[in-house]
Amino acid sequence: MDLRQFDISRYLATLPLFQEVLPAELQRLATGCRLRRYARGESIFRVGMPCEEFHVAVKGQVKLFAISSAGQEKVVELVGPGMCFGEAVMFTDKPYILNAEALTDAIILSVGKAAVVREVEADPRFAMHMLGGISRRMHGLVRDVQAYALHTGMERVIGYLLHSLPEEEMHDNCNRACDAAFALNVSLPVSKATIASRLSITPEYFSRVLHDLEEAGLIRRDKRDIHIPDVARLASYTLQ
Fold first, then answer.
1. Helices of type H across 98-202
2. Closest by Cα among 58, 75, 42, 68 to 192
3. How far is the CA of 95 from the CAs of 45, 57, 79, 84, 133, in angstroms?
4. What pLDDT shows up at residue 164?
5. Other beta carbons less than 10 A from residue 51's beta carbon
6. Residue 209 has pLDDT above 90, yes or no
7. Max intra-chain CA distance, the chain
8. pLDDT band at 238 (very low <50, low <70, confident <90, very high)
9. CB of 138 within 8 A of CB of 77?
10. Which residue has the higher pLDDT, 187 or 132?
11. What values do phi and psi take at 150, rounded to 5?
12. pLDDT at 141 over 80
C-alpha cells in the first residue's frame, strides 16, 4: 500500500464512528491525521505517554495490554482492521493507561485531538457520533468482564471462535433446528499465547480446550485455521 496515495477522508467515511459525518467535515478531520507503518513488535504508545490522538488499525493486528508489578503481561484487547482504540482516553486529558503494540506489520491511522475537538465544537452531532462509538466499546468491555466472571474457560474459547458470527445469527442457529449444519471457518490472527491472555486463561489450557473440541468432532484444526462444521452444535456444547 502506497501511503502517499491513501485517501484518508474516504477511509474515515467507512468507519462506523464517522458513517453519518458529512464529506466536508471528514476532509477537515483528515488534515489532522497521520498514517504510519509499524513493524511487528513495534510500540505504538506506552503507559504514561500523553494522549493527543486516537488510532485506527487500517491493516494488521494490535494488542492493548497492561503489565503487572510482577512483570506479567495481560492482553486487554486485540484490535484488527477498521477498529479504533485510544479514543476514550483522549478526552480525559490524561496519559495512556495501556500499552499498544503491533502484533504484525501494521498500518495505523492516528486522528489528532485538536482536529476532533474542532469538529465537536462546530457541530454537536459530531460529538454524538464519537460518544456512540465509545459507548459501543464500553459495552464490549462490560461483556468481557461478565464473561470472565460468569463463563468457564471452555465457554470463553467457544465464544472467541464464534466472535466473527453476528450475535443474532448465532442465537438463531442455536435456538432452532437446522436442516443443514451451518459451517464457519476461523483463522487465528495471532499466537495462541496472545489469545489466551486476552481470554484470561493459560496457553496450555487454551490448547487443551482446542484439543478437546477437536476430539469431540466440533472443530477441525490445520495450524491456525479452524473449521467449525456445525456452529449451532459448538455454540450449545457447554449447555449439554
1. 113-122, 124-150, 153-161, 167-175, 192-198
2. 75
3. 10, 20, 20, 17, 20
4. 56
5. 19
6. yes
7. 59
8. low
9. no
10. 187
11. -115, -20
12. no
- Collect all residues with Cβ–Cβ distance below 8 Å to 112 and sequence separation of at least 6: 32, 33, 34, 52, 53
Q: Note whether 83 and 134 are within 8 A (CB).
A: no
What single-letter amino acid sits at 239? L
Sheet with 62-67, side-by-side order of all strands? 43-45, 99-102, 62-67, 73-79
CA angle 131, 133, 134 (to 5 degrees): 65
Nearest C-alpha neighbor of 161 from the set 153, 31, 36: 153
Which residue type, as a one-letter code, is found at position 13?
Answer: A
Q: What is the DSSP string of 109-127?
A: EEEEHHHHHHHHHH-HHHH
Q: Where in the chain is the domain with CATH 1.10.10.10?
A: 152-239
CATH topology of domain 3-149: Jelly Rolls (2.60.120)
pLDDT over threshold 90, residue 104: yes
Count Cβ atoms below 10 Å from residue 27 Cβ, excluding itself: 13
* Contact indicator for 165, 226 with CB cutoff of 8 Å: no
Q: For residue 64, how far is the Cα from the chain centroid? A: 9
Task: Show contacts of 121-124: CB within 8 Å, 24+ apart.
Answer: 122/25, 123/25
Please give the backbone phi and psi of residue 25, each rounded to the nearest 5 degrees, phi first.
-65, -40
Residues contacting residue 102 through CB under 8 Å, at least 6 positions apart: 38, 39, 40, 41, 42, 44, 60, 61, 62, 108
| Nine-digit cell string for 162 | 464464534
pTM above 0.85, yes or no: no
Task: Tell me which CATH code domain 152-239 carries.
Answer: 1.10.10.10
Q: How far apart, in whole angstroms, are the C-alpha atoms of residue 61 and residue 233?
A: 30
